[in-house]
Specification:
GO molecular function: oxidoreductase activity
Strand order of the largest sheet: 3-2-1-4-5-6-7
Largest sheet: 7 strands, parallel
CATH architecture: 3-Layer(aba) Sandwich
Distance between the termini: 36 Å
InterPro entries: NAD(P)-bd_dom_sf, Sc_DH/Rdtase_CS, SDR_fam
Number of helices: 9
Keywords: NADP, Oxidoreductase
Radius of gyration: 17 Å
Helix content: 40-55%
Bound molecules: nicotinamide-adenine-dinucleotide
Number of domains: 1
Pfam families: adh_short (PF00106)
CATH topology: Rossmann fold
Strand content: 5-15%
Family: Belongs to the short-chain dehydrogenases/reductases (SDR) family.
Length: 259
């Protein structure tokens, strides 16, 4: 598979489960890949693990910090000359906290990473896509089925992922005619670290709501393997999907539509 030959692909949160796997898949398809993550050790491990597969550039970034993101884009263009694909993948979870139990500090942090981070990265991405020759590029946002329903997460993660739907359609509307596409993938479940460090601290009320509304979570049928998720994201960012813009795809084995 070489259909990303020489393309430059930047993936946020690529020290983590999906981001790291996806980076490896793009490298195998011939891309040059930019890894970035706030977590230095995870980033280093991803860089070491992936550099044998192809050209990799890694830089620590906090997607919530505009200066940090600007530095990343500048360094990427210095290194590779352009950017073709940006995957907005970095996110944090909210431990299923409902509005009445959500500290504003938690709200601010989750919104700053999951929503403002997505905005800041998208802003740098479209301006780079417009400035380069040939012009254009692709953004794939990673949302969640929590962006479609009300019970898959707490108030903050739910609000942040719902907002990505609007952001995706807005970018597609404004920039589609300028050769820029923006689509949103909403995963069901994936076997990663996202929830693990919060496992013992999840809000009990949220867990009951989740279990009651979504048996697929308990029997595991909502889980999507990382290779399947990566193929979908790569397809959306490829020329084969050139007619898809502003699309919102639930990658959940059909669970939300049948619930
Ligand atoms: N795992 C699931 O079941 C699931 C379900 C639905 C949606 N998602 C979404 O999939 C995407 C990938 O998540 P994952 O499951 O691989 O989780 P993960 O925790 O393994 O990876 C997320 C990565 O983002 C990084 N990150 C966090 N804050 C950051 C910041 N401020 N700046 C830069 N990097 C930062 C983390 O260090 C981590 O490496 C996320 O957008 C998540 O919301 C995951």
């Amino acid at each position: 598979m070489t259909f990303f030959k020489s393309k430059v692909v930047l993936i946020t949160g690529s020290g983590g489960g999906l981001g790291r796997y996806l980076a490896g898949a793009y490298l195998e398809a011939g891309a040059q890949v930019v890894l970035c993550d706030i977590h230095e050790e995870k980033l280093k491990a991803a860089e070491e693990g992936l550099s044998g597969k192809g050209p990799v550039f890694a830089q620590k970034v906090d997607v919530a910090d505009e200066e940090s993101v600007k530095g990343l884009f500048k360094a990427t263009v210095n290194k590779f000359g352009r950017i073709d694909v940006v995957v907005n993948n970095a996110a944090i979870f909210d431990a299923l906290a409902p509005v009445g139990k959500t500290d504003k500090v938690l709200w601010d942090r989750v919104i700053s990473v999951n929503l403002t981070g997505n905005f800041v990265v998208s802003k740098e991405a479209v301006n780079q896509f417009l400035a380069q020759e040939p012009q254009g590029g692709n953004i794939v946002n990673i949302g969640s089925i929590a962006g479609t329903k009300g019970y898959f997460a707490g108030i903050t993660y739910t609000a942040s992922k719902h907002a990505l739907r609007g952001m995706t359609m807005n970018i597609a509307s404004y920039y589609g005619k300028k050769g820029i596409r923006c689509n949103l993938v909403q995963p069901g479940g994936m076997d990663t670290e996202l929830y693990k460090e919060l496992e013992g601290n999840m809000e009990a009320e949220g867990l009951i709501l989740l279990g009651g509304n979504c048996p697929a979570l308990k029997d595991g049928s909502i889980m999507v393997p990382l290779d399947k998720m990566s193929s979908l994201i790569m397809f959306l960012s490829s020329d084969s999907a050139s007619s898809l813009n502003g699309q919102i795809l639930n990658a959940d084995n059909g669970m939300v539509s049948s619930a």
